[in-house]
Amino acid sequence: YTIGHMKRSQARRELIKDFLLICIGIALALFLSTSGMLDQMISLIGNTAAASFFAGIFFTSVFTLGPASVTLVNISEYGDPHTIALWGALGAVCGDLVLFFFIRDHFAEHITKSLRPSRVRRILASFHLGFMKWLSPILGALIIASPLPDEFGMALLGMSKIRVAVLIPIAFAMNMLGIYGLIWFTNVL
User: Fold this and answer.
1) How far apart are CA 187 and CA 81, in angstroms?
2) Terminal CA-CA length for the chain
3) Tens of pLDDT along 16-69?
4) Which H or E run includes 9?
5) Cα torsion at 11, 16, 22, 24 (round to 10°)?
6) Could you write out the DSSP letters of every residue in 89-143?
7) Would you say the pTM of this structure is higher than 0.85?
8) Within 13 Å and on the Cβ side, how many CA atoms surround 24?
């Protein structure tokens, strides 16, 4: 075994741990939703704006997306969906900035290390090509608006060298759209 192979296998093990944490987060979200504990937590906070902001902070990460989504949907039973989406998006921007500045993209790092170096170089080089230069920020913004974790969108925006002054309004608008869409979709069902 080479050192590179050992590092890739270690990264793959870490990636499996990351996926297990995601599954635990989903199971926790389902438990909180069905047990009624989530309703009790929301009533303890008492303010739908504060609860939405707090849930929005956790709406950004792959590890906390499930519980935050369920919380936002449950909060929508007590308040105006527009207000919940607004405050949730403000919280999500705070969470996105933490991801962007302080966390060194833990999940993406494990994916990158699990690939061979030549593949990583090819992927990164593609972001300097003409069409990927403008496509990656658009894809990043769409990922932030989607129910997918924001880490992937933030990684794409980071690779496109976007400035923070541009990132904040994009992250706010996309998170607000995503949260409102989530609330609307679950209320339609």
Assistant:
1) 10
2) 52
3) 877 777 677 667 766 766 676 766 776 677 788 888 998 898 888 777 787 888
4) helix 3-35
5) -130
6) HHHHHHHHHHHHHTS--HHHHHHHHHS-HHHHHHHHHHTTSHHHHHHHHHHHHHH
7) no
8) 7
